Every structure is written in C-alpha cells, then in structure tokens.
User: Fold this.
Amino acid sequence: MDTDGPRRKYDLYGHAFKRDAYRTFAEMRREDPIYRQVGLDGTTPIWFVTRYEDVDAMLRDPRFVRDEALARDPADRFVPTPLDRLIGNHMLNRDGDDHRRLRSLVSQAFTPKRVADLRPRVQAIADGLLDAVRDQGAMDLIGDFAFPLPTIVILEMLGVPAEDRERFRVWSNALVEPPMDGEARAAAVRHLTAFTDYLRELFEVRRAAPRDDLVTALLHAAEDGDALSEEELFSTVVLLIVAGHETTVNLIGNAMLALARHPQQLRALRDDPTAMPRAVEEFLRYDGSVERALNRWAARDIAWNGHTIARGEPVILILGSANRDPSRFVDADRFDPARQPNPHLAFGKGMHYCLGAPLARLETEIAMNTLLARLPSLELAVDEEDLRWRFLPGFRALEALPVRWAP
Ligand code: HEM
Assistant:
C-alpha cells in the first residue's frame, strides 16, 4: 500500500520507501534531521528525528515520555477502551516508578545468565526446524524457520502451549499492523478480544495448577495486588508475546538477506562460527528489525537544536537512520560483520532499552550459525527485486524470504 500523501515531504510508509529506506534516511539526516510532517493517519503532525546524536540523547532524556497522560491535558488525550487498557498497561507504555516496578517483575527471566541456560533448547529447536525441511532443498526462511524459532522459545518461557502459535501469529499481527479502515479496525478488535479471552483461560489453568514458568510467576505477583494489577498482568504477557514475534523473526530474515547480498562475508562466517556474535551486532546495525522507537511525547516545551518541540507533541526516533549515521559510524553504509566498536541503537537506549536483548542475541547467533553450518549452499531462490516488505511502520520485516540449497 502506498500511503504517501501530497502533504508529506518524505514518504516513510510506502513500498518504494521500504525498498530503499536508508536512502530516504540519508536525505533526512542531511536536509531535515529534525522534521515535522503528518503521520500515517494523514492529520497528526509528528517530529521525525534521524541523526544518531539526537536519537541517542532523546532516548535518554526523561522529558520525552511514553505515557501520554504525562504530556497532554485530559481533553486532548486518546481515550482507551477497556480492551486497550487490558493490552496497553505494560512497561513500554510507562515512565518513572511504574516503569521500574513493571520491568523488575520480569527482568530476572531475561538476565544474560538465565538466557545462556536456554542455549541447548534454542539449538534443539533450530535443529528440529531444519530437520523438517532439509531434504526439500527450499523453504520460506521466514515462515519455516525465522518465525517458529523465537516464537516457540518465548511461548515455552511463558508456559503458553507452543502448538497454539499460529493463533498468536494472527493476534500479534492485529497489534502491530495499523488498521487502515473501519473493517480492519473491527477485525483487530475481534482478534485482540480472542487473545485476551485465551489468556484469561490460561491464567485460570495456571492458577489451579502452578508451574515453573513466567505466567505462573506473574500470577503470583498479581495476587499480591500492589505488585501487578489485573490489567498489567494481561498487558505484560501480551507485550512479551508480541516482542518475541515481530523482532527476532525479522532480524533473522534481514540478516540472511544481508549475507545473500555479501556472499564473501557469508562464506567467512560459515567458516568461523565464533565470529557470529560480533556479526549479530552488525545485522542489528545494518538492517535491524525495529526501525523506529515507539512514539515519545514532549512532557513540556523543549528547545532542541533550533526547534521548539511543544508540550504534548509526538516525536518518532528513527533507530535505523541513527545506525547509518556517518558521523557515528565509519563507512556507515558498508556491511562489515567484524565492525568494532558497534554502538548501534537497534535495541533502543535508556530506561526502555530492550529487555529481551540477551535472548534476541542468543537466538540470532544460533539461528544464523545453524543455517550456515547445516545448509552450506544456502542462497536466495528469487530475485531480490521480487522480495516484498510488510506494511509495518516501525519494523523492517520481509513478507517472505524464499531460499534454496543443494539437499
Ligand atoms: C532482534 C530482536 C529485538 C529487537 C531489535 C528489539 C528492539 C527493542 C527496542 C528498540 C526496544 C525499545 C523501544 C522503545 O524505546 O520505544 C525494545 C524494548 C523491549 N523489548 Fe525488545 N527487541 C528485540 C527482541 C525482544 C525479545 C525477544 C523480547 C522478549 C521476549 C523483547 C522484549 C522487550 C521488552 C519487554 C521491551 C520494553 C522494555 C521497557 O520498556 O523497559 N525484545 N526492544
């Protein structure tokens, strides 16, 4: 869908943009590093920020908040429905003490040590997925591998039956795909209602028969009402499921595309798997899956590099652009898996820095090493021109990535 309107100087949504996003970002960094234009709804002006220095500083600046209520008068605020409250009351939408409380409840499950313990299980899942397709000589790398791998991992951590994962895929899409008309909005509400109904039943089952999983741990916290409200319980589980769906999946896809475009680097990584952790940092920088941080709101009038960002105005920080800023990275458009240092912003910065970063790194390292080791002749099965990016503002996500190998 091409949604670029005449009143927008920069198309930041259409297919042509997605195909060549980094060229648009280079132009914005050069000409309009802090630029205000209407967003996807065609009416709301939004500040778009593209230089590394600004993105980095704004992510760490507490005057830019996630909670609209801290920045806008009640009359100007979006009025959430009960369903919105059930899915939106999580750490990524909170600031200050509330944010710290919500984050601390789950942070223990994602420490580097806890995540390292998952290595054998992640490896077994990756091997199992490739066992299933190896003799075929071809697959859709997204649907057959990149999608199931992180999804199975997060569902197992939470204690949600992994065989229900196709339903989560639909529900997760309903949360991240912007509904462009009334029909799509109604469908999204239906899906999200089904999602929360499913969780309600799951919570009942776990309450009756607790297990050693994240859902049970969160239920305990919710029983002690001060720690976690009912809405926060639902929202936290939804956040973890969705964060586990749209992020690592697409990083694995984008990483494979980068390697297909750079066969020499692909061979070098295949020959030296110990180089993969550093290469993962470059996959994140070069074509990370989260293109933009979520909207921030200015909590007061803020003077910034010659602009005044007024209280209540929304700001979008483009991580994918910051990561290609030549003032921060030497040869910023060059894909260099050995790049060091690599202070990319692909996981954000500051208090909302990605909680799942250790898990995402582990999954991507194992996914890529397993693909290269077990399918050494792996290559794209279509022309790059035929690849399509999903219409997901904020994410860089391929619809499919057909690959082939000699079985
Ligand atoms: C390649 C994979 C991933 C990328 C690129 C990524 C990126 C990000 C970014 C940029 C943010 C900050 C957003 C903002 O400030 O607006 C974030 C936050 C978050 N991510 Fe990730 N993420 C990834 C994987 C995961 C995984 C696997 C999980 C866990 C299941 C996860 C859980 C979270 C959570 C809970 C937050 C909110 C943290 C907070 O508000 O304190 N992420 N992620």
